[in-house]
Amino acid sequence: MEITSVTSPRLRLDHHLEKEGSKGDNGETFELESSQNVSDHSYQFHSMNALDILRETVRILRYNLYSFMIIAALLLCPLSAVLMSNLLVDHSIVKRLTVRLLLVAKTSGLPLRPFIKQSCQRFAEAAISSAMCFPLFITLSLLSKAAVVYCVDCTYSRKSADFSKFFVIIQKLWRRLVSTYVWMCMVIVGCVTTFFVFLVAACSLLSVMGVTPDLIAYAVIVMGLVFSVVFAYAIVVCNIGIVICVLEEVSGPQALLRAGILIKGQTQVGLLIYLGSTIGLAFVEGLFEHRVKTLSYGDGSSRIWEGPLLVIMYSFVALVDSMMSAVFYFSCRSYSMEASEGECQSMLETITVSAESLGVQ
């Protein structure tokens, strides 16, 4: 089934804000224009850059603030607190994994420079944290992403978010969501594993050829930069795949394939969104590491308020990231349907209506 409308989200919201400014301060209802009311198709369909998507996200957040704050408070804040504090991480396992990674690096001819040691430690922490927190990712994180997509869809459908309907919807979509998320994890693990195998093989080959350690280190940096772009693209595809799983009748590898096709022509925008979100999350994480975990100033009494504040900040950045992924989906959808006309019923609304007709409460 199709989404609610093929009109560009930015244009619909901008048009609404113009109407709102002419009417006054009555902004309680979120009136969006139908694609049938726009006669100029060259104006109707616009691709959105990263800044436009951020502005659109802020508008949606402002018009549906209550629903998004509930999602952040009930789902994202507990997850962020556990992730940032590393409550579930066994540091002895992290140390052992770090040592093994350093041994592999030394064996393959890599010079054990400070950035190599730090990279091994960071990767070990991230790997152990992801493994230990997987139950939280597949419950709280997945629910939060689905709830954000539902609220964004309701906003574009000119309907208020009803969490009782959301729970009816999530019961029908849960298996599809879990299936897509598992495939998403396999894609990410596959990318990381392929990179490390290629990295070790390349470093070993360069070492056998007699290349100096300094040149090997530079080659590792270049390969790391290339991998970062590929990894970022994979994350963007996976995030859009989750959105597609909620809004369309596809899941698993089909959803990821559909996402890869959908973002063609908009890849740069998706990468910029990922870069901005990653920088924001890393910045807050760094503050938490310095101000809460590491006692490098005073008596540490400020941890009482700085810790919760940084958790809230981290949750807000994660919320905005999920919202931008949903808005990016609608933008790509509008961009890829330039030749289409008319309106279609929302996928989520269709599920709700069918559930209510069957007497599901």
UniProtKB/TrEMBL annotation:
Transmembrane stretches, start-end: 65-89, 181-209, 215-248, 269-288, 308-330
Domain of life: Eukaryota
Keyword annotations from UniProtKB, A to Z: Membrane, Transmembrane, Transmembrane helix
Protein's name in the database: Son of sevenless
Organism in which the protein naturally occurs: Corchorus olitorius
